Amino acid sequence: MPRATGTPSPRTTPDRIPLSRERVLRTAVVLADRAGVGALGMRSLARELAVDTMSLYHHVRDKEDLLDGALDLVIDEIVLVGDRPGWRPTLRATILEARATLKRHPWAKGVIVTRTSGTPAFLRYMDSIVGLLRDAGFSLDLVHHTIHVMGSRLLGFSQDLFDDPDHPPDPRVAAIGARQLAMTWPRVGELAIAVSHEGGLGGCDVDVEFEIALDVILDGLERMRAAD
Amino acid sequence: MPRATGTPSPRTTPDRIPLSRERVLRTAVVLADRAGVGALGMRSLARELAVDTMSLYHHVRDKEDLLDGALDLVIDEIVLVGDRPGWRPTLRATILEARATLKRHPWAKGVIVTRTSGTPAFLRYMDSIVGLLRDAGFSLDLVHHTIHVMGSRLLGFSQDLFDDPDHPPDPRVAAIGARQLAMTWPRVGELAIAVSHEGGLGGCDVDVEFEIALDVILDGLERMRAAD
DNA sequence: ACCTGAACACCGTTCAAGT
DNA sequence: ACCTGAACACCGTTCAAGT
Are A201 and B141 a contacting pair at CB < 8 A? Predict the structure, then answer.
């Protein structure tokens, strides 16, 4: 016995929030946050929402659209800073804001690198950055170079080679691995031993390294701007 | 009627090269080069080799091992340059060598960003780079920073945001898209129009941009070295 | 002892039968 | 007209039956 819309059934069934694209995407983010992007399947997402798998396709074109939409929600979380004096502190703070946001959603980096076109929130983000630089006197040409020099660092992450950002290795296994490495590859091994805390470098703090690299690049931008 | 090993059948069946890990991995590279990493499945690879799917598991632990091995062959193709005067020209030429190699195997970038541990050829490559910098007087600390500043650029590619490196867009559609973009996002749109050739910037040559960014970063390294 | 085909447990998505 | 369950066409991999 179906009822008119807007009149929820008073029976034992709990009030069902109607499915919507917004609810589908928000739940996708929550699911990926909790269990990783590998757990974000159409079937598992539907189970999470307690709906039929096929009902999802009413709000989402396909899996790609689902990932685009979930990622867009994450990028939309980045709060734009606007109260800093000068382009350099503003850009630096914005990028660290983006980094903090992506840290809350560790799966997002991996999704970003598979996307081929910008989502609305990403375009909004880029528009504010381009505007910031243009207002500071950067030429179009220089803004273009800036985007290529920065690359993924604009969104707060660097594409490091062969590391698992979600699961930092146990320092003790890292130290053992570094010593084994040194047997075959003495020079990279020496470095690994140093970085794994035994050599006095005090381990590798990726956040510190990110900021160091960011400042090196910001230095470069300032010089490019002066020479432009 | 099986024959002794080494005595190929003289019948209609063509001489079968016996399956080996090497042959499996080399064929995987060829298949991915031709049809993309999406076409590199256990079943399709077996078909390419004209063997049973399950026979592959005799030479490869699983799919991850297959990807690791195929990628290792690619990285092993990078020829190390050793005849340049000074660390900066040597590093620059090595990185551009790596870029040329990855360009011959467009799928490799996408595989690299999913790997979590270094393959043998990658360690050999890194060992030569660490050695180059150490021999030039870089401290361990500075080499460590260098690796983080460089990131994926060490292997000749930058992680740009939202672009499809394999399929550069048609300039004409790009120009139309840029103009549509400018309606909603004026500042990023202005840049897109300029980059899509209409504004006089002459399009976007990713190879040129890569070298510009590389030189900016190499400048930064030289300054870090001077200050160290 | 070794190889291999069928089968398992998943995917994303189509499609037509059902209400 | 709308929803949805079964089914399709794929995966990577296990496992036991076969030679």
Answer: yes
DSSP string for A179-226: HHHHHH-HHHHHHHHHHTTTTSS----HHHHHHHHHHHHHHHHHHHHH
Cross-chain CB nearest to A134 (options B158, B159, B187):
B187
Residues of A in contact with B113 (CB under 8 A): 110, 113, 159
Q: What's the rounded mean pLDDT across residues B31-47?
A: 94
Are domains B21-60 and B76-162+204-227 of this chain identical in fold?
A: no
By C1' distance from the Cα of A42, the closest nucleotide is: C12
Which CATH number fits the domain B76-162+204-227, given the four candidates 1.10.357, 1.10.3210, 3.40.50, 1.10.260? Answer: 1.10.357
Q: Could you read off the pLDDT of A26-71 as tens digits, one per residue?
A: 999 999 999 999 999 999 999 999 999 999 999 999 999 999 999 9
Residue ranges per domain, chain B? 21-60, 76-162+204-227
Decide if B151 and A161 are in contact by the 8 Å CB cutoff: yes
Plot region of B222 (φ>0 → left; ψ -120 to 50 → alpha; else → beta): alpha
**E-only strand ranges, chain B:** none
Calpha distance B76→B125 (Å, rounded):
8
Record the pTM.
Answer: 0.89
SS3 content of chain B, % helix, strand, coil (to 5): 65, 0, 35
Distance from CA of A88 to the nearest CA of B (A): 17
Note whether B160 contacts A151, CB cutoff 8 Å: yes
Option in A122, A220, A221 nearest B162 (CB): A122
Residue A197: the pLDDT is 67
Nucleotide nearest to A44 (CA to C1'): C11
pLDDT at A161: 83
B21-60 belongs to CATH 3.30.565.10: no
Task: Give the pLDDT mean for A107-125.
Answer: 93
Nearest CB partner across the interface for B194, out of A140, A185, A188: A140
CB contact (8 A) between residue B191 and residue A116: no
Q: Which residue has the higher pLDDT, A30 or A175?
A: A30
Six token digits for residue A107: 């799966």
Q: Which residue of A has its CA nearest to B217?
A: A217
